Amino acid sequence: MKRVIGKGEFAVLEREFIFLEKHGELEQGKAEQLLGLYEAGQGHAVDGSSRFLRIMLAIGAALVGLGILSFIASNWAGLDKLAKFLLLIFGLIVFYAGGFGLERRYPKTARSLYYIGAAIYGAAIFLIGQMFHLSGGAQNAFILWGAGLLPLAVYLRDKWVGVFAALTFILGGEIFFWSASGLGLRYLLILLIPLLLWVNDRYLNKSKAVFVLTGLAGFSFIHDLLAAVHADAWLQMLGLFVLGVLLVLLPFPNYRTASSWVGSIVYGIAGITLTIPYVWEDGLVKSGSGNIPAAIMAIVLAALLIYLLRKNNLPAIIVVCGFIFRYYADFTFDFMPKSLFFIIGGLILIGFGFWFERSRKERGGQLE
Length: 368
Fold this sequence. Notes:
Layout: E1 3-5, H1 7-22, H2 30-35, E2 38-40, H3 48-74, H4 81-102, H5 107-131, H6 137-156, H7 159-173, H8 189-203, H9 208-228, H10 233-249, H11 256-273, H12 277-280, H13 291-310, H14 315-332, H15 338-362
Parallel strand pairs: 1-2
């Protein structure tokens, strides 16, 4: 069974195998034999001109979408409810139909029309909710927007639509959107987040960007669930820390590197937060007694980072950088001249950047 890889990856392999064959490192005909073990994803490799055209059309779609939304917003007060509703529905139908009509002959232009239609769809959710005074607020609107993007991502097999859907799920589950109405449609994220992971695995060529953002959306939703049941701050962070570490140690088989990055972001933020004493004073210990659990957490995090660094886990370097910088800022900001504080802090970051780059090169550029 052939291994399915991305179009760009297949093009790189083809170029390198031919190069090795040409210079005698591979036997004649071996390049074709090796390439036969792989299968490129749908479509053709993207060359420079095609990439430029795609970017230009995407920017054009964004500008047109913003212009249309600006026009609607500026004339919104002067329209009655029926006119507002019909205008939004008409715009949605026109751009989706236009994309469908141009898809066969001009696929890239058609895709830009689909993007505009997706933007109008999202605007329609917000504006219709405002028009009819529907409850739920922005959080429900973002979730409905993301849910409506999933069929489009499947139809277009477009990872960027999947990326935007994941971003709407993050916004829909974020804590600053919580309101008196309770969880509302955010319970749908229990189904929508796994569904997006399945769509990515099945239709979006296992995009790492979609996986990372969907994973972060999942952790954001878990954090908000803990907040909804009024869990103490230290318990919220400790739960995320444990889950992040588990994802690093037990990654998804098809997304090992991406799992490591998502888990590292989560356990890094949660772990460093738990080294702050006052976080533990939210329900666990009395005020002024948070230094001991914070110190214990610092030791646990340091031991974990040493273990991961010995395993050549590159994301751990970023967490180490944040961990050290947290204590550097804590101990020196009030006692050091501000110019010297920033200079030394910058040098520390540059040093970690050099360490990260050297580690990446030693591993063959795995994070390119």
